[in-house]
Amino acid sequence: MKITFLGHASLQITIGDINILVDPFISGNPKASSINIDELQADYILLTHAHQDHILDVEAIVKRTEAVIVSNYEIVTHYQNKGLEGHPMNHGGTWDFEFGKLKYVNAIHTSSFPDGSYGGQPGGFVIEGEHKNIYIAGDTALTCDMKLIPLQTKLDLAILPIGDNFTMGIDDALIAADFVECDKILGYHFDTFGYIEIDHESAKRTFFESDKDLMLLEIGESIEL
Ligand code: NI
Ligand code: MN
């Protein structure tokens, strides 16, 4: 499994020969100008919620790649009404996709489309694929629901928001890592705009002092699990 950070909360995950994009917000992120959305490969696009900073590039990418949108029922219906293909889910539901098993799990946040229309309830994803298990938290507060994840899945990586203000900050993300029983964390949803700028060294030190590894990737940088 290969995971590439595309800036903000945008990720590309490659499992076998399947390409998955998560929350594509690239063309509107000046920090991600090195990424060209017209060159991204996608078989699936996972959306955690409907906020602009998670869906901006969905339609452009799906029209070119014919990727299948996977999200909550309301978001998928929104795109199906525009003629795009989707797989609707809701919290607690699991489906066996060709890349592995995916569960849509709880997140504490909101989820409206940019025009204010209802975007269902926000979520995160647990993916079990190619003998590696990851948790993509989405935009969320720290929540005790995270403790449910390790009851079923031994995680190899937890991808957690750390920018604070709109989501968890560093201190809550450290507790979240304990809740999901995973010491290997990829931080996201930081530095994109003023409210969520963080001190990288201090953030990494906080995790290191608790015997955890916080990875902060450059935009375009990848890790292999
Ligand atoms: Ni959001
Ligand atoms: Mn966000």
Number of domains: 1
Strand order of the largest sheet: 6-5-4-3-2-1-14
Largest sheet: 7 strands, mixed
Distance, first to last CA: 5 Å
CATH topology: Metallo-beta-lactamase, Chain A
Number of strands: 14
Strand content: 25-35%
Let me know the average pLDDT: 98
Q: Can you tell me the CATH architecture?
A: 4-Layer Sandwich
Q: Shape from CA axes? A: globular
Low-confidence stretches: none
The number of helices is 6
Ligands: nickel (II) ion, manganese (II) ion
Tell me the structural class.
alpha/beta
- Tell me the name of the CATH homologous superfamily: Ribonuclease Z/Hydroxyacylglutathione hydrolase-like
- Any idea what the radius of gyration is? 16 Å
How are the elements arranged and paired?
Elements lengths: L1 E4 L5 E5 L2 E5 L21 E3 L5 H4 L2 H8 L2 E5 H8 L5 E4 L4 E4 L2 E7 L16 E7 L2 E5 L12 H4 L4 E5 L8 H10 L4 E5 L11 H9 L4 E3 L6 E3 L1
The structure holds nickel (II) ion and manganese (II) ion.
Describe this entry's structure for a reader.
The chain has one domain (2-224): Metallo-beta-lactamase, Chain A. The chain has 6 helices and 14 strands. The protein has helices at 52-55, 58-65, 73-80, 149-152, 170-179, 200-208; strands at residues 2-5, 11-15, 18-22, 44-46, 68-72, 86-89, 94-97, 100-106, 123-129, 132-136, 157-161, 184-188, 213-215, 222-224. The strands form 2 sheets. It has a 7-stranded mixed β-sheet with strand order 6-5-4-3-2-1-14, with helices on one face. It has a 7-stranded mixed β-sheet with strand order 7-8-9-10-11-12-13. The structure holds nickel (II) ion and manganese (II) ion. Manganese (II) ion is lined by residues 9, 51, 53-54, 139, 166, 189.
